[in-house]
Amino acid sequence: xxxxxxxxxxxxxxxxxxxxxxxxxxxxxxxxxxxxxxxxxxxxxxxxxxxxxxxxxxxxxxxxxxxxxxxxxxxxxxxxxxxxxxxxxxxxxxxxxxxxxxxxxxxxxxxxxxxxxxxxxxxxxxxxxxxxxxxxxxxxxxxxxxxxxxxxxxxxxxxxxxxxxxxxxxxxxxxxxxxxxxxxxxxxxxxxxxxxxxxxxxxxxxxxxxxxxxxxxxxxxxxxxxxxxxxxxxxxxxxxxxxxxxxxxxxxxxxxxxxxxxxxxxxxxxxxxxxxxxxxxxxxxxxxxxxxxxxxxxxxxxxxxxxxxxxxxxxxxxxxxxxxxxxxxxxxxxxxxxxxxxxxxxxxxxxxxxxxxxxxxxxxxxxxxxxxxxxxxxxxxxxxxxxxxxxxxxxxxxxxxxxxxxxxxxxxxxxxxxxxxxxxxxxxxxxxxxxxxxxxxxxxxxxxxxxxxxxxxxxxxxxxxxxxxxxxxxxxxxxxxxxxxxxxxxxxxxxxxxxxxxxxxxxxxxxxxxxxxxxxxxxxxxxxxxxxxxxxxxxxxxxxxxxxxxxxxxxxxxxxxxxxxxxxxxxxxxxxxxxxxxxxxxxxxxxxxxxxxxxxxxxxxxxxxxxxxxxxxxxxxxxxxxxxxxxxxxxxxxxxxxxxxxxxxxxxxxxxxxxxxxxxxxxxxxxxxxxxxxxxxxxxxxxxxxxxxxxxxxxxxxxxxxxxxxxxxxxxxxxxxxxxxxxxxxxxxxxxxxxxxxxxxxxxxxxxxxxxxxxxxxxxxxxxxxxxxxxxxxxxxxxxxxxxxxxxxxxxxxxxxxxxxxxxxxxxxxxxxxxxxxxxxxxxxxxxxxxxxxxxxxxxxxxxxxxxxxxxxxxxxxxxxxxxxxxxxxxxxxxxxxxxxxxxxxxxxxxxxxxxxxxxxxxxxxxxxxxxxxxxxxxxxxxxxxxxxxxxxxxxxxxxxxxxxxxxxxxxxxxxxxxxxxxxxxxxxxxxxxxxxxxxxxxxxxxxxxxxxxxxxxxxxxxxxxxxxxxxxxxxxxxxxxxxxxxxxxxxxxx
Length: 1039
Prior knowledge:
The protein is α+β, with helices and mostly antiparallel strands. The protein is built from 34 helices and 26 strands.
């Protein structure tokens, strides 16, 4: 009977495996054979019923999962994720054994499965995210750790979700001696059935778009930047440790935000507060984000996981209670927060991104509640929104003694549209595109951001001359250019002449050398002058030539017989002197002929012939000497000409080099090469206390000495108000500038709207407006224009004030830029970016500064969301921290935050206090917000925050108490307000010098209040409730 049940169970399991969808169209044949062997072996087995039932059930469930592994989606329908492969490689088995160390104990699973009977086979079906390790025929269900089953990227999805089975040899292993035809039949049946069922899923699985699971979302570039700062790549970190400059090494503890609330006059209900924290975390899912990257895969993607909506949290999941035995102070709270943040930074992980600490003491009724947020899940406004929601819900639930659960259930998040996870999925370049397109878009955006921030933080400098000096240098350069042209022509001619003379000298020297070679090679003969008896040596060739000249061409030797016969001498003469040679014949005298007894007639003829021979020999020898002398004279002449040509060429070349060098120098002076210069980050002059001993903390981010003190004592706040008339004047000024520019373009025949104008208006700073009539017409039309925000004017006025007190002409300050959309409240959707101010132009005007601000804000809005500035700063090697910062909330944004429950004090980051009387109780709870500190603001010294309202602008100066005193900051506030009051539209543009000159005449007018600032009357002061009519809010600090 047990055998029949087992067969039925296997049949059902086989059928269930047939109906499952599979991403591939075929199933591995070895898996089908394994299923067939299991069924056949169960039919032929002779073991006991109990053992057979239990082992067969376990084995059947394992075999069933060896074919497919599925997960259940939100609708409860099983969704196929990956096919399983049986790994028998020893190397793979060793890898699995290492992975199994991270999983729960196998013994517990074995014990629980052995107690089940054959009737509970279907109940033992494996659930999602299970892994199976088979020992013989017994399969053990083991829960796979989340780090193993999480996918990292589309290319590695199959590898990461694979579930493996390891087989270990044992005596109870299933025999393999089965009929191959039976196995083949089972395999073909299963394959055909699965091919008919998986067509639709295969088509969906192979689509190019990536679908995100409900419990995960793609990290935004800002989240990835924070993750890489806190969790740097170990390989890159080890390779570039020495190459990175010290200022680029940032502390991971910077990327946290802390708040502190003090609760007095009532014991805090930690359990209820923990429930409220869990409820808020469940409502704003980004707070539950956990980041993960598989370290075993090279260049694995970073993934962001969030909890499901129906996840039940323990009370201590987000909340940590710390009881203090001694006195509870803010110094102690600050120290504990710093210790915890440093511990999280040393772990190099982002598993905890949101935490709430509750500090209580036995000796004091007060308690401190300190939420800690990571920059990866929110910015400063996120912290304020979440903290206000937590305490609003806590107070509402605390007032209901029996209805706290109902208050929790009725709570809804303030984000009416989409939360941050939806924002991340629709982020430009992520949602609805493939990973390749995402990479291309990210690269394009990064290149655009590099261009924008390089232009902002790095400038090309060229120091040129102008005026009469430039004119004189230009004329001198033109003259030198003409001189260089003439010298080049002269050098060319001299070079050609030098080459020609070199050729002639070479030819003549060759001829002279050939004469000497001929004389030495052919030998020489001695020749004696018959008249002077001078002995001379001539070459044999010359001697042969002389013989032919004297005796004739037909003479073969120097015998004169042929000469005598030619001149018809007598036979007697031939007989007596015909045997003489030319030399002997030329030396005959009359006495020698008389002794020979020759007739007088014959003697005269012979003497004449002898004289003829002597003269011819003498002439020939002289002619040979003349050839040598002529060659030597010609060689000497050419040598002199060659030397003179070389001297002139050298002089001309030297003159040309001097002139050419002077031309290059003058060209560099007139058009100097540009070089890159980093625009300095502005830092105001501060006071130095005796305790500092000359140590400058500026830009010393790694020194925590200044941060070991109480958070409550680090920052100082000075609020101020700008009168409604000044705000109205600023709006009129901006709109008048717009209309004036439109009018000028209309007069020039252009129809380009003001909003699309991209060129810098600073080039026309010195141009006047059309006329006083035009100005009055423009101001008269102001009633038809809706006022816009005054951010550009306030930022330009702030820059003028900074220029005056710092004395810098060109500098950078930090601007808080937000890219929230569609009512998004919670999430890392802001960044601090640089903005450059340039006052170096002569007679610079306030209109030019506004133009700089307008262009900078437009470019900033194009690249801030997709590319964090900190990453670009690392590539450009520029500062990413700014001691002076500016933050502005326009009227529309202020209205949005008011609807979200934030007050003016919240936006200004000021301290806030509220007393709450609980319903049904006589107890009054006092809740005071002590601080909201961004750890990244360690380098910040001075920050101006402005909140624009319908009729006024409220601001606050946040400054470091260790660097500045209250009196100095109050004077700076007065100068800033004076600058705003001096902005007015007129026929001529505002000169910066005129605005600064007002400081010395108008600052004293503001010294009416106790703090040195005139308190303008306003309809809504900082101490008034600013909750909008008809707006429900749980916020405590709506002041």
